[in-house]
Amino acid sequence: MNALFNVVVAAFVKADLITALNILWKGLLAVVIVVGLIMIATFVMNAISSKIAKSKEEKAKNEQNSDTKTDEN
Amino acid sequence: MNFLIETVAAVTWQHVVMWLIGFLLIFLAIKKQMEPALLLPIGFGAILVNIPFSNVLTDPNAAAGEGAGIIQWLFEVGIEASEALPILLFIGIGAMIDFEPLIVNPKLMILGAFAQIGIFLTVILAVLMGFSINDAASIGIIGAADGPTSILVAMKLASNYIGPIMVVAYSYMALVPIIQPFVIKCCTTKKERLIRMDYNGKKVSKSVKIFFPIIITVISGLIAPKSLALVGFLMFGNLIKECGVLGSLADTAKTTLANLITLLLGITIAFKMQAESFLSLQTLMIMALGLMAFVFDTVGGIMCAKVMNLFSKKKINPMIGAAGISAFPMSARVVHKMGLKEDSTNYLLMHAVGANVSGQIASAIVGGLIIGLVL
Fold first, then answer.
1. HSE toward the beta carbon, residue B110, CA cutoff 13 A
2. Phi/psi class of residue B201: alpha, beta or left (left: φ > 0; alpha: ψ in -120 to 50)?
3. Tell me, what's the pLDDT at B329?
4. How far apart are the first and last CA of chain B?
5. Which pLDDT tens digit goes with each residue over B170-186?
6. Read out DSSP for B136-198?
7. Which residue from A22, A46, A42, A13 is spatially nearest to B128, judged by alpha carbons?
8. Under an 8 A CB cutoff, do B127 and A16 touch?
9. How far is the C-alpha of B313 from the C-alpha of B370, rounded, in Å?
């Protein structure tokens, strides 16, 4: 009876341990994927934002240059 | 005269122990200034709920709908029904966070992710120590170093040890300045601690700051929908701060709302500190496992930084990895102080804050993942 009880307990513990190991690899994989996607999205946003900022700067420079030329004329 | 002594006669040694624990938490809050906003209400609440026949608890002999005790009512409405209190607190936390250091250097997000490894390792340890998977997962989430996340996960998983888990989570958050420096010194060499990191201080546009919380919410929700309550409300709080048109709401969220909920949360948590459920061998085991979670988190973040240095020209100071734990902003301050101690010209604060806020996001995501994977 005791041996049977021990086997049943061991089976439950083993089942929970397998669940815990599954949580480990699935959880880590999922968090790495989510974080990876957020990183990519952030890189893209930063790239777009700096491109827009550069083109605004160039536009402002060109407008300044054309204003200077008009003044000289 | 019996009515005067019946309560005193009902006091047991377990009640007295809980009063002493309450006094200890109050002492730590006031004298040592360890998370006073939480430990003081928890400590005082522990005393309130451990006085026999206390009417802060619902009278079990009263008819249904009558005799509701205020602390029990707050727990049933504010935490048990929908985990409203911890989730709403995340709005305030989101309104306090500045994601700029993270947006400037998105690589720091990896550190935040791997600094949550302690959660998963602690789940395994807890199972090996005989806890059921629901309890083990609830104990593991102490490693999230985030009170609301710990409360939410423990409630959703219907853990039998909500009281000890909450007290341990908040206590260890306050002990970060003691736990982390020791672990960091064990895992890093002096040469590594001296690695300089210059902050480029690039300005982040307002549009990026507005899109960032929205995109995080969508991505997290699509992959880990059970994390949306936490991540969503955290990002909502940040969005109302960054949008620039809701100044008064943002101020209210980060001051009045956060303070009000913190005030109620602390004393509400005390409902689970009744002697019968709190005083057990399992509470001591949870205290040990909670410490392991914090230690493994710190080690995970540091090791991740060291591995990143193998592939990166621009070296990362491994101490930054330790800041990936979600104890915001204490962990960032600890790392910054340690950096200054090694080299008084090496300012690691902005990098540490970046890793710290990424840990905040990652811990909320992991909380949702744990709920989804266990249920």
1. 15
2. left
3. 82
4. 53
5. 888 888 888 999 999 99
6. HHHHHGGGG--HHHHHHHHHHTT-TTHHHHHHHHHHHHHTHHHHHHHHHHHH--HHHHT----
7. A13
8. yes
9. 35
Q: Cβ–Cβ contacts within 10 Å for residue A53, how many?
A: 12
Complex ipTM value: 0.83
CA B341 to chain centre: 27
The pLDDT score that the predictor gives to residue A12 is 58
> Which stretches of chain B drop beneath a pLDDT of 70?
61-66
**B-chain residue closest to A10, CA distance:** B130
The rounded radius of gyration (Å) of the Cα atoms in chain A is 31
Residues 26-65 of A with CB under 8 A from B: 26-28, 30-35, 37-39, 41-43, 45-46, 49, 52-53
Euclidean distance between CA atoms B181 and B38, whole angstroms: 23
Q: What is the DSSP letter of B79?
A: I
Distance of alpha carbon B210 from alpha carbon B213, whole angstroms: 6
Distance between terminal CA atoms of chain A? 107
Amino acid at B135: D
Instruction: Look at residues B119, B11, B3, B71 and name the one whose alpha carbon lies nearest to residue B273.
Output: B71
Residue type (1 letter), A15: A
For residue B297, the model assigns a pLDDT of: 94
User: What is the value of pTM for the model shown?
Assistant: 0.85
